Amino acid sequence: MRFHCVNEMVRTRVVASAQRTALMVKRRGQWRDITWEQFGAIVRDVSKGLIALGLNPGDRICVLGSTRAEWVYADLGIMGMGGITVPIYHSNTASESRYILQNCGAKLIFVENTALLDRLQTVRDSLDEDLRFVLFQGNPPEDDERVLTLSALMDAGRGVPDEVLDEKAGHCSWDDVATIVYTSGVTGDPKGAVLTHGNLLSQVANLHDLLGLQEDDITLLFLPLAHIFGRVIALISCYAGITCAFVNNLENLMDDLNTVKPHFFGAVPRIYEKLYDRIRNQIKQENRLRRGVFHWAIDTGREVSKARQEKVPLPLTLNARYRVAKRLVYDRLAEVFGGRLRCFFSSGAPLNRDIAEFFHAADILILEAYGMTELSGAVTINRADNYRFGTVGLPFPDTDIKLASDGEILVRGPTVMREYYNDVEESASTLVDGWLHTGDIGEIDVDGFLRITDRKKDLIITAGGKNIAPQKVERILAEDPLFDQVLVHGDRRNFLSALVTLNVESITRWAREQGLHYNSLDELFQKPDIVRMVQERINRKNHELASFETIKKFHILPHNFSLESGDLTPTLKLKRTYIFRKYADILDRFYKSEER
Length: 596
Prior knowledge:
The chain is α/β, with parallel strands linked by helices. Helices cover about 40% and strands about 20% of the residues. The chain contains 21 helices and 27 strands. Helix 8 crosses helix 9 and helix 12 crosses helix 14.
C-alpha cells in the first residue's frame, strides 16, 4: 500500500484493525492490552490538543523521554496534525537538549517526568520564553502556566472539532517533513537529519515485506524511540497491524520474552552479546552430561547451518542428528525466548559473526541489517531465505548502493534524507548528485552482499603510514570470552594500544579458583596474575593479526564503558574521541618512551 503520509497510514490501520490489540503495556507488573480503536482515539486527542494550544502544521515539537507508549502517542499525534517530531534522548544532558530545542526552533516539548523537567530547568532561561511543556507523568509546578499534563492536553483537544483537525492535516503529503532526527555523533554538535513522510513510509514498507511480517505478530520494543531504529519498529507496527509490547526495564527482558512470546524483535548487537553471554554462563553451571549434550547439539547445528547457507539438502544422518538436537536443545532454548520467535533483527552497529553463527547453530536466525539516521533506518538486510553471516545483506529493492574509489558506501533511494536542518554546508558535502555519502567503508561481494569494514573517520593511520580498521582488531580481541569491551588506540602513533574491560563473572570466577583475595574490582584487575593472564590472551589474539595491527600495550579499566559515564552514544557505540580524551594520561604513557 502507498499512503500519502504517516497520518493516513495510522488512520487506515485504526479502522481496519479496530478491536485487535495495538499495544501491550505493563502497569503494576501486569500486561494491559490497548486496542487500535483506543490507540487511534488517544493519538487523535493529542493532535487536537496541540491545535488547541495554537500549534500549526510545520511547527517543530520535541519529545524527551524513554521508550513508552506515551512517546508513540506524542509522535503520531504531532505528525497527525501536520507537525514535525524532533526526538531528544532521555540520556541527553541539559545543554545537549538545549542545543536541539534552539536549533530546531521548537514550540513545545513533551517531557516524560518531573525529573527530566527539572533537568531542563537548568537551561530554561536560555530557551524560548513561549516554549510549552507537556508532562507524560507527574504534576506540573503550581506556579508555571507553561507546563501541563498529557491528560490536560488531551482534554483540551476534545473541544476541537474533528473537521478542524482534518483541515490541518488534510494537506500533508509524501514530500512533507515528518521528523528531524539529530544524530547522536561522537564529537561536536549533532546534525538534524530531515526525514519526510515518504522516507519513513518507504522504510517501513520495505522492512514489512523483507521481514515477512504478519498481522498476528507480536514484537517487543525496548530500543530508544529517539533513535530511528526504535522509531521504525513502532511505525512498522502501525503499517503491518502487529502488536507492540513495551519493555519497561531491560533487566526484565528475559521474563518479558517468555511472557509475551514475540514472533520477532529488533535490537542492537550489544543485546545479542548479553544474551549470548547469559546462555554460555548458564551452560557452564550445568553438569558434565548436560554440557556435553549442549555442545554436541551446537556442533550439529553448525553443520546444519553450513548446509542451509549453501542451500543444499541435509544428508540423512545429519538430518537425523538435527532432529534429536532440536528435541533435546533447540526447542528448549526457543522456549526461553517465548517459543514463537521466527527471527531476530540486528542493526545499529556491526554484529559479531561468531554470535550470529552460534545462534544459527542453535536454530535461531539473526538477520543483520545496515542503515543510519540519514537513511531513515535500514537500506540493506539479510533475508530469511537469503543470508550471509559477516555481511549486512542485500540492498532494498528500490535502493542503489555503490562504493566510491576509497571504499566509502554511497546510497541512493527513497529513504535518503532531504538534508541536514539549517546546515547547507554539511548537506552539500553529504548529499552529492543524489547519492548520500555514508562515511562507512565497505565491500560488495559477487552476489551483492554488503560487508561493512570500518568507519571512514575511525581509520587509524599509524606513524608508519599503515591504515588500520580499529573495529576489526577490537572484534578479534573481543572474541575471547574474558574481554567484555575493547577500544583500540594508535592514530599517528608508532604502535597500537588498547583499553579493555573484563567480563566480571568470568574473571571473578577465575580469581576464586586461583585463591586471589581482593577488596574491589579495581584492586583485582591490577593484580599481577590478572594482568599476566590478560597479556597472554592478547598475545594469542595478536597471532591472528598483521604485525602492524597487534596490540603492544593495554590498560584494564575497572568498569565498562557506559551511557551513564558518557562513554557511549545512545545507540551504544563507543565515543572514541571522548574516551581518548578521558583517558589521555594513560594512553600517553604508553608511548612516552618509544616516541621521544
